[in-house]
Specification:
The protein has 546 residues and is an alpha/beta fold. Helices cover 37% and strands 21% of the residues.
């Protein structure tokens, strides 16, 4: 097997915020301490925002790997070490290999393991049938060393030191006169222990004689072959077997196919299934970017379902999840939002608490299991909590969030108020960003019954920075409504030093007016209170749709 340990990805929602990223890293640390059977890998479902970049840099933690889809790929399979052959190997060698290993297909690779071609049992059978009558070795010269190895024979004379057999192949199994009339100069002749004919054939200019049955070769034949430059080979087999083995000494590069069904480690399982079905070899060869052979996947390898294993943090709704989530095995959900629509095939562990941050839940689990929290992980989880609760001031903040934040701050040797200001400064930076980047900085999609809405939220100190790009942002929102068929797209603009939300709206604006008793003018309104999306904004929108 090429993979030694099963991977479980821990991932947050699309357009991840700090709580999503920090929770993924923190929970991966927690699970790796508790469970040594799997490798828990933190991941992200989008680009990092400026605040999260600041957090990771501050605590010297590497950014989680980005995953675009949870749909299974070849890398999720337990790949076997491939059985391969050299292009200079003989047909007999690969046929014996197939019989020994009970396989029907063998890749052909060079000395550096680069893929050259493929040979199947059908290729060997077709070649064998096509050459039943024997032909001319000029088109398919046989390597002398391969032939000797295949025959288990020996060279008696080789005065010209030739390394390949060429010319017509003739079996001398008839009367002397007929044999001499049918052979010509340059032929390779297979015959038994008839010294008189051997001498006549050497004199007629045959290039090689293969003497069968381990027969003794006379001094006269040996002397004459040396004089005339004729190759003499002794075979321990009978004439028929020797003839067949000569045919099977053909090198693989002559019969191998270069029409090779290939795939990479990140080819989707759904795609490789199709390639295997369409290939006449009923397999696909797995290669890297430099065409080195990694493994081979056959129909047998695809009999059982192959799915990525994943733990979701900070979300539990399909629209917010990374693509392909329904094709993965969801093992756990750790969240603090409303219960969404994600369904699983098997019962799983779900921890969904009505508190301010997913980071609080993860830290509590570590305290419960008495796991020592390193300074960097403590700082990371604290950052997620402070970010999601707006430095412990939002209405979603609970006493549990505050208590956990204080404990983590002591471990990380951080003063919450001072660090909170640094975090806030990093989160409100929108200078140099395009309208689309601003809109997707903290963007979430929701399904409310048959309605599909999207809510983005940004924090700024100077709202004029947003107003300067307002028309461009509205245009992006309008595009979203059309392309994604959203009933409603909303951008909440929050100034942490003020109370209230400035709101940009596209789509069914009456819902906002109904939910918050405001009037929208020029796609814009003001709500005189600072809102939490999860606790206040989305619930009110949901009731308004009823």
């Amino acid at each position: 097997m090429l993979s030694n340990q099963k991977r479980v990805f821990i991932i947050g929602h699309k357009n991840p915020d700090s709580d999503s990223i920090c929770s993924a890293i923190g929970y991966a640390y927690f699970k790796n301490v508790l469970d040594k059977k799997c490798l828990y890998v933190p991941a992200r479902a989008g680009d990092l925002n400026s605040e999260t970049e600041f957090v990771l840099e501050k605590f010297k933690i590497e950014s989680p790997m980005e995953i675009e889809s949870l749909a299974a790929t070849v890398s999720d399979m337990e790949l076997k070490k491939p059985i391969a052959a050299s292009p200079n190997g003989s047909i007999r060698d690969v046929a014996s290999l197939m019989k020994e290993k009970n396989i029907r297909t063998v890749p052909v690779i060079d000395a550096s393991k680069k893929l050259l071609g493929i040979v199947g049992l059908k290729d060997i059978a077709e070649y064998y049938i096509d050459n039943l009558g024997f032909g001319d070795l000029s088109t398919t010269p046989v390597d002398l060393n391969i032939l000797i190895s295949t025959l288990n024979g020996k060279v008696i004379a080789n005065p010209k030191k030739i390394d390949k057999l060429t010319g017509r192949v003739f079996i001398a199994a008839m009367q002397k006169t007929t044999i001499l009339n049918k052979t010509q100069a340059g032929d390779v002749v297979i015959l038994g222990d008839r010294s008189d004919i051997q001498i006549e054939l050497i004199n007629s200019g045959c290039s090689a004689l293969i003497i069968t049955g381990d027969s003794a070769i006379s001094h006269e034949v040996n002397r004459l072959a040396t004089k005339k430059g004729t190759l003499i080979i002794s075979s321990p087999h009978d004439t028929f077997t020797t003839a067949r083995l000569l045919d099977l000494s053909t090198p693989l590069y002559f019969i191998m196919s270069k029409d090779v069904p290939v795939a990479g480690l990140y080819t989707l399982i759904s795609e490789i299934k199709q390639r295997v079905v369409e290939s006449k070899y009923r397999c696909s060869l797995i290669i890297d970017g430099d065409n080195h052979l990694i493994s081979i996947v056959t129909r047998t390898d695809l009999l059982h379902p192959i799915r990525k294993k994943v733990i979701l943090v900070d979300h539990n709704e399909t629209p917010q999840a990374v693509d392909g989530v329904q094709e993965a095995d969801i093992l756990e959900i750790i969240d603090h939002h409303r219960v969404g629509d994600i369904a699983t095939l098997m019962p799983i562990h779900v921890c969904n608490e009505p508190i301010g941050s997913t980071g609080t839940i993860i830290a509590e689990l570590m305290f419960l299991h008495r796991i020592a929290i390193p300074q960097d992980i403590a700082g990371l989880l604290l950052s997620g909590i402070l970010s999601d609760t707006l430095i412990l001031t939002l209405s979603t903040t609970t006493e549990r969030d505050k208590e956990v934040a204080r404990k983590l701050a002591r471990i990380a040797d951080i003063k919450i108020e001072e660090y909170g200001k640094e975090l806030l400064a990093a989160s409100i930076n929108i200078k140099g960003k395009t309208a689309k980047e601003i809109l997707f900085q903290d963007f979430k999609e929701y399904s409310l019954g048959d309605k599909k809405i999207a809510v983005s939220q940004i924090m700024v100190i100077d709202k004029e920075e947003v107003r300067a790009k307002e028309s461009e942002i509205k245009l992006e929102m309008e595009k979203l409504c059309a392309e994604k068929r959203y009933n409603l797209v909303v951008l909440l603009i929050t100034n942490p030093l003020e109370t209230g939300e400035e709101v940009l709206v596209k789509g069914e604006k009456r819902i906002i007016e109904k939910a918050f008793e405001v009037e929208i003018q020029n796609d814009k309104c003001f709500i005189p209170q600072t809102l939490s999306r999860k606790k206040e904004f989305i619930p009110k929108i949901g009731y308004a749709f009823v």
